[in-house]
Amino acid sequence: MKTVLYIAASPRGQMSQSGKLAERYLASRQAIDPDVRVDRLDLWAADLPDFDGDKAAAKMTFFGVGEMDATRQSAWDQIVEITRRFTEADEYVLSVPMWNGGIPYKLKQYIDIITQPGLLFGFDPENGYSGLLRGKEARVFYTAGVYAPGAPAKYGADHHSTYLGWWLDFIGVTEVETVRFQPSLLTADPAGDQERALDRAANLTRQPA
Description:
7 strands; single chain; two-stranded antiparallel sheet; electron transfer activity; Rossmann fold; alpha/beta
């Protein structure tokens, strides 16, 4: 049984435009493959710990800075447990609204918690960073109220799809498909544009191998 981890980055629940796209995709995905398991992670309801001094110190031991004492090990074990839910999934679905040109801070917090050496990436002084995930897929749904690709700079800049695309590649997720509903507000036909985006989301579904 394949597991899809749905990471909801919007706090708006059923009003979220990116969430509607993700839900349309998941409904289509489960209609084709009823055995797929969907694990839903609402970042706004999750108990995400601060990436504090002990966790940062534990991380740095992997780069040869300091030692993994009992306090740091306890902090690291918490990170490992949170990350396991992510690494055990076969596919990632992310609903990501644009916030101030970037991603919502809860998603950034989650990324900062799980993106750790030996868990999601490796490092070699000569060859640099390398992603550790293999065979994973991602479907990412981007929305923005005013910004649109190619729009004049006065309507904003895109640091959320560029950052998230970089991060997925960084950890080894290279099979990524995206759907954009941008803009969702500054458009002559919001309802029509939304429906077309929903259709694109549904059409990302593939027949299971």
